Amino acid sequence: MTTNNEVLLRVEDLTMHFPIFRGVFQRQVGAVRAVDGITFDIMRGETLGLVGESGCGKSTTGRAILQLYRPTAGNVEFDGVDLVNLKGEDLRKTRRKMQMIFQDPYASLNPRMTVADIVGEPLMVHNVATRAEIQERVNHLLELVNLSPSFAGRYPHEFSGGQRQRIGFARALALQPSFIICDEPISALDVSIQAQVVNLLEDLQEQFNLTYLFIAHDLSMVRHISNRVAVMYLGVLVELADRDTLYKSPYHPYTQALLSAVPIPDPIADANRKRVILEGDVPSPANPPSGCRFRTRCPIADKICSESRPEFREVQPGHFVACHMVK
Questions:
Q1: Closest by alpha carbon to 175, among 209, 137, 204?
Q2: What three-state secondary structure class fits 234?
Q3: Which of 12, 50, 112, 231 is the most exposed place for a label (fewest CB within 10 A)?
Q4: DSSP label of 316
């Protein structure tokens, strides 16, 4: 994986709140703070891994970047274009350069459509090819993801989970995008298939110079595929660094707890390493703690942690942390 210093995607203070309504008159009584002010860049040609517990806002972040959810606040700049203020035809044209691979290969494909219709639909919607050209393009896309063009007339229920995810890849590549959000693309697949899918993602990235935002739970797989890794907790980023730096020297207590739970293939080293066990449950995003979001479960929390929200700051070159205790 090769990267350069050109920023393809810039996210600044991205916020996504979902209102809570109650009563006969459906008055707003609060909001679910799914994403609460996150900032990061993605360089052209790189893979940024985004990890965190279920419900921390990873998928919402991906959808807000693509404007599938209109952000409550913040800016999203893609290749120099401000996506938040784009509407109508201008947004539709820009979306050709950005695609998404969804988590569930069983729910993300229309069961009433053939593979040819599914993969060719983006070309038809954006009117970039004739019917004959679409058929030729579909066959080429299926070959790219290691599926036979003879599968074009079949329906999704005739394929395995791994094959369905490859169909999703082919659909995402149809418009030749430069940026793809991979929303946990391997979590619903068997372990034996996961490596094949990740290798395919890497091959496609090298072939087409793609840029990925790779959302996942599997920290081992994130380390394998990512250039940099961002750690998210309850709607905020707590740490962002180069993958090797993050895995060797994590600063934030939450990152340390996550990495201590990753299995390692050495039984002696595994027995001797220190496990960080977090107590309590994840707070509700509708009523997050004051100050630091992680303080209610943090083993080193102090008084200042409840009084003010820690700044997401650069403590080492390229290494960002949001923690009062990290100097």
A1: 137
A2: coil
A3: 112
A4: E
CA–CA gap between residue 179 and residue 7 (Å, rounded): 12
| Spatial distance between the Cα atoms of 11 and 96, rounded to a whole number of angstroms | 19
Domain chopping of the chain, boundaries = 7-321
Tell me the pTM.
0.90
The DSSP output letter for 254 is H
Question: How many helices (H) and strands (E) are present in the chain, helices listed first?
Answer: 11, 12
Cα–Cα distance list, 51 to 7, 199, 220, 283 (Å): 21, 19, 11, 18
Q: Contact, 229 vs 223, CB < 8 A?
A: yes
7 beta partners: 43
Architecture of the domain whose range is 7-321: 3-Layer(aba) Sandwich (3.40)
DSSP state string for 41-76: EEETT-EEEEE--TTSSHHHHHHHHTTSS--SEEEE
Report the side by side order of strands in the sheet with 7-22: 27-43, 7-22, 73-78, 81-82
Give dist(CA 250, CA 175) in Å, integer: 38
- Give me the sheet containing 179-183, strands edge to edge: 98-101, 179-183, 211-216, 47-51, 228-233, 236-242, 319-321, 313-316
| Look-up of token digits 């600063």 | 251
Read off φ and ψ for residue 53, nearest 5 degrees: -70, 165
Neighbours of 200 (CB within 10 A): 18
Answer for the pair 216, 186: CB distance below 8 angstroms, yes or no.
yes
